[in-house]
Amino acid sequence: MDQKIITLYDQYTHSQLSRKDFMKKLAIIAGSTALAMTILPMLENNYVAAAEFVSDEIEVENITYGGIDGEIKAVLAKPKGKKNLGSVLVIHENRGLNPHIIDVTKRIAAEGFIALGVDALSPLGGTPTDEDKGRELIGKLDPEKNLQNYLKGLDYLRKRKDGNGKVACVGFCWGGGMANKLAVNDPKLNAAVAYYGAQPAPADVAKIKASVMLHYGGLDERINAGIPAYEQALKDNKIDYKLYIYEGVNHAFNNNTSPTRYNEAAAKLAWQRTIDLFKNKLAVLTR
């Protein structure tokens, strides 16, 4: 697919560009409204096309924990019958806690961790089924309260009796930016993994105590513009970090429900690197 179309869709999903204006621009690039309508299903997330992750080795439940102004909804997944586990907080993209991120949460649990997929839109009634509505609601969240709600999610995981007290986070897109924010704002965080997420201010990087892993798509010019300053700050402050750029792939390359942006090879490699980091940083040392 023409990279101009993918770039336009990225602009649409990460700005206040209306659907009407997006479709007008898409029709211009495609050559006609009819072709634009044909292309649209290939751009939008398709949860039916992507196989749901299923494992008999994990248990999954909907839970709530105390937030700033009320209860925060989340999906919790964990290996059956196991304790003393490391925990991972999973942070969704800018459409809310959708089926794809719930699957990611389950996949992390299947790797041997307690995984908590938090619904950041809980204060606004929870994630809607309409993704465009979810994007609108994300923009209405109070940034500081939202940050505190995620920090409380990390505290919830640390206090679980089946956990070992070690906690990491992983976020995608909007959630990748939040993962970076949590690394800055939680000195007890053991590891933070950001997939194509906005970078923190260089002046804040000195606050990071966690090990950081960063995954970027080589074609993602919008997000990648912030890499040089972030990496230099990580180096200057001697932060433990790994940074990977997957050439020839787009923003959201890990999302297997997004057919035009998903890249299986890059997604599998990034995932394995992520799990290896969690196994290294969240395990209990034994003698």
TrEMBL record:
Gene3D superfamilies from the UniProt entry: alpha/beta hydrolase
Q: Give start and end of each Dienelactone hydrolase domain.
A: 72-280
Q: Which superkingdom?
A: Bacteria
Q: Where is the signal peptide?
A: none
What does the UniProt keyword field contain?
Answer: Membrane, Transmembrane, Transmembrane helix
Against PROSITE patterns, the record matches this protein to:
TAT
List the InterPro entries hit by this protein, alphabetically.
AB_hydrolase_fold, Dienelactn_hydro, Dienelactone_hydrolase-like, TAT_signal, YqhI_dom
Q: Name one GO molecular function term.
A: hydrolase activity
Question: What range(s) does the YqhI domain occupy?
Answer: 2-27
Residue spans crossing the bilayer: 26-43
Q: Does the keyword Membrane apply?
A: yes
What protein does this entry describe?
Carboxymethylenebutenolidase
User: Species name for this entry?
Assistant: Pedobacter paludis
